[in-house]
């Protein structure tokens, strides 16, 4: 029997963006550029998605360098992959604040197995972007930070949201991480494409950890209340 794990791994393995990129912006594809990430994510999905239980989709912005850009698992840095998911990671042990928030929320939900039994996290644009600064350092870049990039990526975004839906996820509710430009983009796309019946947006974990860390528990409760709307 083909499981969610099989379908997700197949989906990740076929991901490849060949569209135009503005000057200075590079694509980050952990499934083709990082054997460690490919192996770690494959083990993760076999461990937590080896069934066909109904799940709801959660869409972030696009992968960052120190989370899914390293592990291949959305909002999961190596620290959390090891300590919370019980999966060995032989690569660099990076830390991402967004991952810290997500796994504290998952613990409050009831634990990793319980959460991933009901939800699947990926991104509006399923691969990452980086931009090289004047100092030569690469930093994360969002699909909506450049109108030229957003327009070029738009067909790829639609195609890949539909591919993820075809894996078998529910469409009555889609959760969106980001109550600013990511939410606005996803709502506009959904108005045009009629993919989801309803979108529920939540403050992005990075925003919470950077600006609202003292009230993190309140945001965890808000997440849990939103997720409780799924039958």
Q: How would you characterize the overall build of this protein?
A:
- The protein has 231 residues and is α/β, with parallel strands linked by helices.
- It has a single domain (4-165, 173-192), classed as Uracil-DNA Glycosylase, subunit E (3-Layer(aba) Sandwich), CATH 3.40.470.10.
- It has helices spanning 4-14, 30-33, 35-48, 68-71, 78-83, 97-109, 112-116, 147-167, 181-193, 205-211, 216-227, and strands at residues 25-28, 56-60, 119-123, 128-132, 138-141, 170-177, 198-202.
- The strands form two sheets. The protein has a four-stranded parallel β-sheet with strand order 3-2-6-7, with helices on both faces.
- Helix 9 links the parallel strand 6 (170-177) and strand 7.
- Helix 1 runs antiparallel to helix 3, helix 6 (97-109) crosses helix 10 and helix 6 packs across helix 11 (216-227).
- The longest helix has 21 residues, at 147-167.
- It holds the Pfam family UDG.
């Amino acid at each position: 029997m083909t499981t969610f794990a099989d379908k997700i791994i197949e989906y990740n393995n076929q991901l490849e963006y060949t569209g135009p990129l503005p000057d200075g912006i590079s694509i980050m594809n952990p499934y083709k550029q990082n054997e460690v990430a490919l192996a770690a994510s494959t083990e993760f999905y076999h461990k937590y998605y080896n069934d066909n239980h109904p799940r709801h989709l959660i869409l972030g912005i696009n992968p960052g360098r120190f989370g899914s850009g390293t592990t291949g698992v959305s909002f999961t840095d190596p620290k959390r992959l090891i300590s919370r998911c019980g999966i060995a990671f032989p690569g660099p042990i990076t830390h991402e604040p967004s991952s810290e928030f997500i796994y504290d929320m998952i613990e409050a939900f009831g634990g990793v197995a319980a959460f991933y039994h009901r939800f699947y996290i990926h991104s509006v644009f399923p691969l990452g972007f980086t931009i090289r600064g004047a100092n030569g350092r690469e930093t994360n870049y969002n699909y909506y930070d450049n109108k030229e990039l957003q327009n070029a990526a738009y067909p790829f975004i639609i195609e890949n949201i539909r591919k993820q839906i075809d894996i078998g996820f529910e469409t009555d509710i889609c959760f969106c991480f980001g109550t600013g430009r990511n939410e606005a983009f996803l709502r506009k796309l959904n108005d045009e494409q009629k993919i989801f019946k309803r979108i529920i947006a939540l403050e992005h974990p990075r925003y919470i950890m950077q600006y609202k860390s003292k009230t993190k528990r309140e945001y965890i409760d808000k997440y849990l209340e939103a997720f409780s709307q799924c039958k």
